[in-house]
Amino acid sequence: MGLVRTLIEANIRLSQAFDSILPERVREDGNRHFTDHIVPLALRRGITLYDVGSGRTPCLSRETKEKWEMTVVGLDISAEELAAAPPGAYDRAIVADIGEFVGAAEADAVICRALLEHVPDTSRAMRALAGLLKDGGRMFIFVPSRNAVFARLNLLLDENLKKSLLRFFYPEAKGQGFRAYYSHCTPSQIEELAKKNRLEVEVRRLFWISSYFQVFIPAFLLWRLGQLLLFQWLRTDAAETFIYVLRKD
Q1: Are 47 and 71 contacting, i.e. CB atoms less than 8 angstroms apart?
Q2: Stretch among 31-40, 49-58, 206-215, 239-248 having the lowest mean pLDDT
Q3: Contact 149, 197 (CB under 8 A)
Q4: If you count DSSP H runs as helices and E runs as strands, how many of each does the chain have, helices first?
Q5: How far apart are CA 48 and CA 70, in angstroms?
Q6: pLDDT, tens digit, for every residue of 28-54?
Q7: SS3 of 44-96
Q8: Which CATH class is domain 2-248?
């Protein structure tokens, strides 16, 4: 097993070395950008913020929440996930399916990170998310795209096999591997749903990197080539992941 891990790490280094010669705009990690640059846009003193789908890993620390005197509501389908969050991270916890939930339009901001790909009907989820917001409130979402190669593989693989592969190649991803559907999970589809729910696009960011194929350099090179070809056909909908900041009109 030690030799296998050494080979995997060597392949990751080779993949990263190849990527280092590519333009920076295709190497930026969307999830990191969301955490470092988008979530801070939601911080305003005294507001009510809904953190939807984060469960045990809230987007804001207790210290940040208290510094900004914010009320943070955690909403997740799993009571177990919410209970595993750091103490004090949520002022209130709601156990609910976002596809079925009806909000009271009390939120100044809604954060939804890597959730929409896991709901069977994103159109219903977007309607529910918009229903959480006050008029003028903003929604901050990060979504892996349905058109990404890893997403297509995710849809094809048996759930048990997928989890076993994740544990083997990415031991740091323990606890991940939730079932994914990728319903309406492309930039153009999200913009269409936003329009239907009175949400204006304030920010759009597209990202062209994911780490799944770095463990095997031949697969990584084929993926990069395939991504280039896919862009010629799908253009912005070929992005690996994407971010939107949406304002309720």
Answers
A1: yes
A2: 206-215
A3: no
A4: 9, 7
A5: 6
A6: 999 999 999 999 999 999 999 999 999
A7: CCCCEEEEECCCCCCCCCHHHHHHCCCEEEEEECCHHHHHCCCCCCCCEEEEC
A8: alpha beta
Q: What are phi and psi of 77, to 5 degrees?
A: -75, -20
Tokens 């809904």 found at? 50
Cα distance between residue 178 and residue 118, in whole Å:
7
Structure tokens at 227: 């991504």
Q: Give the global pTM.
A: 0.91
Token pair in block for residue 147 = 């058109």
Report in angstroms the alpha-carbon separations of 59 from 53, 156, 196.
10, 30, 27
- Rounded to whole angstroms, the Cα distance separating 199 from 195 reads 6
Alpha carbon 213 to its chain's center: 18
Contact (Cβ atoms closer than 8 angstroms) between residue 60 and residue 49: yes
List phi, psi (to 5°) of 48. -105, 125
Neighbours of 110 (CB within 10 A): 27
